[in-house]
Amino acid sequence: MQFRHQKVSVTAPARLHMGFIDLSGSLGRHFGSIGVALNEQATCLTVAGADRRSISGPSVVRAEKCLTMLCEAFNIPDNLRINIESAIPEHVGLGSGTQMSLAIGAALNAFYDLGLTIRDIAKVMVRGQRSGIGIGVFEQGGLVVDGGRGEHTITPPLLARMAIPEAWRFILVFDKRGQGLHGLQEIQAFQELPPFPRREAEQLSYLLLMQALPALAENDIVRFGEVITRLQRAVGEHFAAVQGGIYTSPEVATAMQWLAEQGAVAVGQTSWGPTGFCMVNGIERAAVLVEQARHKFAAGDTLTFISASARNSGGLVVVE
């Protein structure tokens, strides 16, 4: 197979996972989730032809595994040079594994003109087993809602996609010491969880459809935030037995409580954490709050705070 292009560059945005709707499938479909793409955290890489296979940059081990799986699945040569310019931090709740898989898959798809969709790549890479948020944000960006898994689901279908207002800002709180559950630990944790109450799933479904999404459409960050906080508390309480509390990191939990007291909304933990998130209206307000948080929690030297914006476009593939 001949190289069709000289180089392909891909940007795959990180995502916040804002919570599941029905963790037990009590209403007929498992999971279902809501999340949003971010601008400031992304996996960026380039793929070019080479005499032999080489990968450089961060997250090389993960990238090696992805490249091997994709080349074997699609029967394509691996004599490529991959330069990873930046990588989403691993196992902190930002979707690093899915975005690395999709980034390399999208690059190979363009490089060899394979004619694949993002969902074709996700299926081969066994992504979307529970949440389809990472796939949805690569496809379209913005805020996405997936329909979970039914009897015949391959990847969770995208039910809604909406743009986030430019003025809305996320504050992310990182714990420098730890990682959230992943791999076999994550699988075991889901197996150990008690049944998610049907009544709770019904309530969350209603709040998402009839409160959160209309609030987003009407630029009402307070009402939107109320639903996300409510959803996050329900999921956090359900996960508490396997992750040590509503938050994986007690220090992040303390910071999130303080941020809520300062007026932040949509307060919670993305995926298994330990990263916490919340929202405020206004770039300047976010910058001030981040600076105040850095000063207040500086003594512990365990937390990092950043302001981030929503990415209202999906993954970017540039062919040269």
The biggest sheet, with number of strands, parallel, antiparallel or mixed sense and barrel status, is: 7 strands, mixed
Structural class: alpha+beta
Rg over CA atoms, rounded to whole Å, is 19 Å
Proportion of helical residues? 25-40%
Roughly what fraction of the amino acids lie in strands?
25-35%
Mean pLDDT: 94
Order of helices and strands: EEEHEHHHEEEHHHHEEHEE
Molecular shape: globular
The low-confidence parts are: none
How many helical elements?
A: 9
First and last CA, distance: 18 Å
Total number of strands: 11
General description of the model:
The protein is of the alpha+beta class. Helices cover 39% and strands 26% of the residues. The protein has nine helices and eleven strands. It has helices at residues 60-74, 96-112, 118-124, 133-139, 184-192, 198-217, 221-243, 250-261, 283-296; strands at residues 7-22, 31-49, 54-56, 80-86, 143-146, 158-162, 168-175, 265-269, 276-281, 303-309, 316-319. The strands form two sheets. Strands 1, 2, 3, 4, 5, 6 and 11 form a seven-stranded mixed β-sheet that branches. A four-stranded antiparallel β-sheet has the order 8-9-7-10. Helix 6 (198-217) packs antiparallel against helix 7. The longest helix has 23 residues, at 221-243. The chain is globular. The two termini are 18 Å apart. 47% of the residues are buried.
